[in-house]
C-alpha cells in the first residue's frame, strides 16, 4: 500500500467566515483544493498559497509519519488553503426546490482533496484522534474539521454537538460520564439513551458546570415500574436534549472526544449482565447491553444442547414440589399467574416458587425466585417442576410428563379472533394455526374466563382436554378489600396529583406492525400534543402497551402522558384509572367489573375487523362505549362522560353480564383448590 505523504499540519479559523487548512505536500505543488459534497457530488474549489517550511502545529506533530534521511534534512513544503465558509453554504444542495437550509438533525459532509498537476486527486491524511475544530456557520450550525475512520480529512456541516471526554464504570454498573457542552446548549438538559432497534428511550438529568455536563447512568440497577432492573438488551445511542422542552425536542448525538477513544470499548458485567461503553460511526457514543442469560447458555449450539440434552436429563429425574410461573413468556410479574402465586403463598403451600423472567427485566417478590428464560436452570425447571402456571404458550419442544400438571390460565377474554379462527385473515399462517392442537396437548387444564369464551377457546386452540370455567384469577383484585389502597398507591407512585382524572390508554398490538415475532411496534393514533393542550389542566394520560410491544412513549411527553407499560400488572392500572380508552383489548372485559366509563378509539376498525383479525362478537353492537375515530372525538367524549354513560348504560350492563359473570374474587382460590388435590 502506498505511503501517505500529504498530511494536515494545521487548521484554524482565520478572519471571520474563513477557515485555513495547512497541509504538508512534498513534490510538485497541487493545483488547487477541491471540496466535494458527499451525497450530491457538488464541488467547490479553492486556490493554493505556498508557505515556507516551518515546524508543524503541536496538535498535528504526532499525526504526520516520521521522516528519515534526506527527508529530515529537507522538510516538505507546507501549503495553506483558505476556505470561504459562505461558499460552502451557498453550495449546499437544494431539496425539493426549497432554500438551502438543512434540517437540524441532518449532517452534510464535505471531502477535501488536493487536485494534482496531472488532473488527479489525492486525499489529505488526518489524525483520527485529533480533537475536532469548530467554525460557526449561519442558522446555529457549525463546520467541523475532523477525520474519517480511515484517516482522511473531512468537513462536517452540522448543529453543535456535545463531546464526552470522561467515562468511568462503578462496580455496581453505574456509568459516570462528563463532557463539553456546545456553546448554545440549553440551561437544563438530560442525557437520553435510545434503543437502536425499537422506539424506546431512557432519560437521565444532567448537571452543568462551566460549560460541561455531568451525568450518572445507573445501568446495572435502573429504577422502573417493574422494580430495579438492568438495562434492557440492545444497542443504545447517547443523545443530549433540553429537559422539559415542549413539543418534540431535538435529540443531539453525544460524540466521544479523542481523549476517551483509546479506552474504548469499556466493559462492566453486573450480576451476569454485560454492559459496554463503545462508539459507532467513528465517534458517536454507544452503550451495548448484552443478554442477562448466563454466558455458558448463549448461542444457537448451546440452546440446542440445553433443549436436547439438559432438558431431557432433568425429565429423567423425579419431579420436585416446585411451581414454575410464566407470565407473557417471562416479560412481567403479573396477570393471572401472579394471582395464583399470591393465593398459594397466602395458603402457605409447601412448595418452591420459581418465576420465569426474560432478560432480568422484571423484579419478583421475596416469595419467589427468578429464573432467566433460556438458561439451564429454566430448562431444568420446565422438566422437573410438578406444577407450571402460565398464561401463554410454552415452548413447542416442551412435553408434559407423567405427574406434571400444567395450568393454562390464558391471558384474557378473546374479544378478537385467535388461533384457528384466524383462517381467512391476514394472520392466517403456520405461526398461528399449525401448532395449536399439538401445543394445547401440553396442558392439564385450560381456564376459561366466562361462558362466551369457553367454546371460542376450545375451537380456536384446538383443545379437547379439561377446561374449567373459573373466571380469570387476575380479576380477583377488583373484589379485594384493599383495592382502593392499591389504586391510591399506584397513583402516588406515578406522581399523579389528587383531583386529576386518570385516563388509561391500553391499545392492543397490531400483527402487521411488528419488528419480529416477539417485538411489536406501538400503534398510537393519538395526537398527544393536541390532547395535552386540551386536557393537561385536569387529566393525566397513562399509556400501557401490550407486553409484546417493544416501543415506548418518549419521556418528554411527561408529566401529562406517562408510559406505564413497564408496570408489571395491568389490573393495578385498571384499578387506578377513572376512564379506560382502548380499541380491541381484552382489558375491556376486565375493566367492566369497575362500572367506570370506557371509550374505544378505533380509527382502523374496518381494517382490523375485515383484514387483520376480526372479532368473536359483533364488536360495533356490543362494546360498552362509543367508537371514536380521532383525538378530537376522544377529547369531546372525555368532556361528556356522564351523558355517554347514561346513553350506554344498557349496553354496559349487557357486556358486563356476558363477560364478567364468573368474576367474584374467588378465581385464584379455585385454581389453588385444584392444585392442592
Provide a short characterization of the protein structure.
With 677 residues, the chain is α/β, with parallel strands linked by helices.
Describe the SSE topology.
Blueprint (H helix, E strand, L loop, with lengths): L6 E7 L4 E7 L7 E6 L5 E4 L2 E3 L6 H4 L8 H4 L4 E7 H6 L17 E8 L5 E3 L9 E5 L3 E7 L5 E6 L4 E7 L4 E7 L8 E7 L5 E5 L1 E3 L2 E7 L3 E3 L2 E3 L4 E9 L9 E2 L1 E2 L1 H4 L4 E5 L2 E8 L3 E6 L10 H16 L4 E7 L8 H12 L5 E6 L11 E4 L3 H9 E6 L14 E4 L27 H5 L4 E3 L5 H9 L4 E3 L14 H11 L7 E6 L7 E3 L2 E2 L7 H8 L3 E5 L17 E3 L6 H7 L2 E4 L4 H5 L6 E4 L3 H8 L6 H4 L4 E2 L2 H8 L2 H7 L1 H11 L7 H10 L1
Parallel strand pairs: 12-22, 26-27, 26-29, 27-28, 29-30, 30-31, 31-32, 33-36, 33-38, 36-37, 38-39, 39-40
Antiparallel strand pairs: 1-2, 2-6, 3-4, 3-7, 5-6, 7-8, 7-11, 9-10, 10-11, 12-13, 13-17, 14-15, 14-20, 16-17, 18-19, 20-21, 20-25, 23-24, 24-25, 34-35
Helix pairs in contact: 5-7, 6-19, 10-12
What does this entry look like structurally?
The protein has 677 residues and is an alpha/beta fold. It has four domains: 7-158, no CATH class; 163-289, Immunoglobulin-like (Sandwich); 296-475, CDP-glycerol glycerophosphotransferase, N-terminal domain (Rossmann fold), CATH 3.40.50.11820; 480-659, CDP-glycerol glycerophosphotransferase, C-terminal domain (Rossmann fold, 3-Layer(aba) Sandwich), CATH 3.40.50.12580. Helix content is 22%, strand content 29%. The N and C termini lie far apart (79 Å). The relative contact order is 0.08. Residues 52-56 and 60-73 have low confidence and may be disordered.
